[in-house]
Write a structure and sequence with these properties.
Length: 520
């Protein structure tokens, strides 16, 4: 049981505590070129909190939109809003005016802090939506810039005495289908994910150096790159651009011990690693989509390190099924994180016995609270969060991912999980990435169609199609093999590293598998 005091501002526990303990000189957050100590971070957080109150009249409960790439200043803005009792609405840097506008309306946002390089789209939003009154530029050099305002603000600020269950974050889901949903999380939730998943699965210590790719607007990144390190007085290196080349570079230059990224990034890293690059890494966390066994094994082979799979969701704030290193079963997501319960249920919510495939249901210290959204009733049923994933729990209690419930391919009466076919394809040495979806078919309803990115040096020809089909038939039940294989240069992915299956499905339905249609 995780119990927190009734009055709780998470920033006191993540930041101020270390200053009070005389640990202010320890590194807190940096980039490949900067390093801020806990004391320096606290100084900026307090100044920003004062600016928010003094210059923009922020009162507790006000929502503040943040828009910036991952860097120390974004962390300072984030913590400043929380410390002042505000509610963070963090947004992905690549979002456009239309998507930002939806969030501004939905979360009724009047104030935004925005990196000067990303102003254009947000200004467009402001022109369209009256309520977004003020956009404070960050780093523009202007006299009304946040950095200028900070210079004349006090470096002291007393944390707003928020309640443990005051909302402090509205995280928007990536919304691959329909409008994005705002999920509300409390001050205590920020600590609960550290004390459940963070502590039990990562066992972090204050000398750990965290790094990785997920944007802080994605709760995977918020936990992995800000909350988990700060909860134990450790540090984190943030990357404004976090492709595989930048990740390898940060491994070499900053010697991190913990890395957070998505399966596709681990696969991309494999081709780039030189001996010794991962020597300081202790833990590599993979989340966002399923981690195929082939990826697990290839990473282990190349680096000697196990990958730590974990399923999380914006609705749950962070990871709720995973396994500490000594309990990993490659190919399985793992066991419920201590503090969480998970089970498999049928469509009516009835418990299913071990070995059956069904809907994943989970409950624990964090959970789904949509901001004014009638889909709440679908996500939370009888107190259990229904994540929309199809899973199998084995006799030993391990959870095995099958598919997103709406991604199941039904072909000639068979249920086929696209990710299982992808995992089989990935064990073929020529395959770099792949996505498998159902394409409409008159005879079978749907047929299995694979979009494949080949590794360099392999020919995309009929012989390869045949080789891949035979390979799948040898790996898993033959009826699951892809009847159609299309070779592409790249797969459509979200900013969070997820395959956009709906895009592949649309292309498959249009009968157009040309590389150019996908690469754009
Ligand atoms: C899928 C996985 C198989 C699954 C997230 C860690 O991904 C995160 O949040 P989102 O709201 O998406 C949630 C959905 O993504 N998924 C995530 N991890 C896995 N499927 N294996 C996995 N390991 O469909 C889930 O319902 O974008 C991940 C921490 C925080 C997060 N928000």
């Amino acid at each position: 049981e995780l119990v927190y005091p009734e009055r709780l501002n998470c920033v006191s526990e993540l930041l101020d505590k270390w200053i009070a303990a005389g640990e202010g000189d320890r590194p807190a957050v940096g980039s490949p070129t900067e390093r801020w100590s806990y004391a320096e971070l606290a100084d900026k957080v307090n100044r920003i909190a004062n600016v928010l109150v003094r210059d923009f009249g922020l009162v507790p409960g006000n929502r503040v939109l943040l828009r910036a790439p991952n860097n120390p200043l974004l962390v300072a803005c984030y913590l400043a809003v929380l410390k002042a009792g505000g509610v963070v609405v963090a947004t992905m840097p690549l979002l456009r005016a239309k998507e930002l506008g939806y969030m501004v309306r939905k979360a009724e946002i009047r104030l935004a802090l925005c990196d000067h390089r990303l102003l254009d789209e947000l200004v467009k939003t402001k022109e369209e939506i009256g309520i977004l009154g003020t956009i404070v530029p960050v780093g523009s050099g202007r006299t009304d810039d946040l950095l200028a305002l900070m210079r004349t603000a006090s470096p002291h600020f007393t944390a707003c005495p928020t309640a443990a269950d005051d909302v402090c974050l509205i995280g928007f889901t990536s919304g691959t289908t329909g409008e994005p949903k705002g999920t509300m999380h409390f001050h205590r939730d920020m600590l609960a994910i550290c004390d459940a998943y963070g502590r039990n699965v990562l066992s972090p210590n204050r000398d750990d150096v965290f790094t990785g790719s997920p944007p802080l607007a994605f709760t995977f990144g918020l936990g992995g790159l800000v909350l988990f390190p700060m909860r134990v007085g450790a540090s984190s290196i943030l990357l404004e651009r976090a492709g595989p080349d930048e990740l390898v570079d940060v491994f070499r230059r900053c010697r991190p011990t913990v890395c957070f990224t998505a399966p596709t990034a681990y696969r991309a890293l494999l081709a780039r690693l030189q001996p010794g690059d991962t020597a300081t890494l202790r833990i590599c966390v993979s989340a966002g989509e399923a981690l195929p066994k082939a990826t697990w094994e290839a990473w282990k082979e190349a680096t000697g390190l196990p990958l730590l799979d974990g399923i999380g969701a914006t609705e749950m704030l962070h990871i709720f099924i995973s396994a500490p290193v000594e309990k990993i079963r490659p190919g399985a997501t793992g066991l419920p994180v201590p503090g969480y319960e998970a089970k498999i249920v049928d469509d009516l919510g009835r418990d299913l016995p071990p070995g059956s495939v069904g809907r994943l249901a989970v409950r624990g210290p964090t959970g789904c609270r949509y901001l004014a959204d009638e889909r709440q009733r679908r996500y939370v049923q009888n107190g259990w969060n229904i994540t929309g994933d199809t899973y199998l729990q084995d006799a030993d209690g391990y959870f095995w991912y099958q598919a997103r419930s709406d991604d199941m391919i039904v072909s000639a009466g068979y249920n086929i999980a696209g990710p299982e076919v992808e995992a089989a394809l990935l064990t073929h040495p020529a395959v770099q990435e792949c996505g498998v979806v159902g394409a409409p078919d008159e005879e079978r309803g749907q047929i299995v169609k694979a979009y494949v990115v080949l590794k360099p040096g392999h020919a995309a020809d009929a012989a390869m199609v045949k080789a891949l089909q035979d390979h799948v038939k040898a790996e898993i039940a033959p009826y699951k093999y892809p009847r159609v294989v299309a070779f592409v240069d790249a797969l459509p992915r979200t900013e969070t590293g997820k395959l956009q299956r709906f895009v592949l499905r649309r292309i498959a339905a249009e009968g157009d598998g040309s590389p150019t249609a996908l690469a754009s």
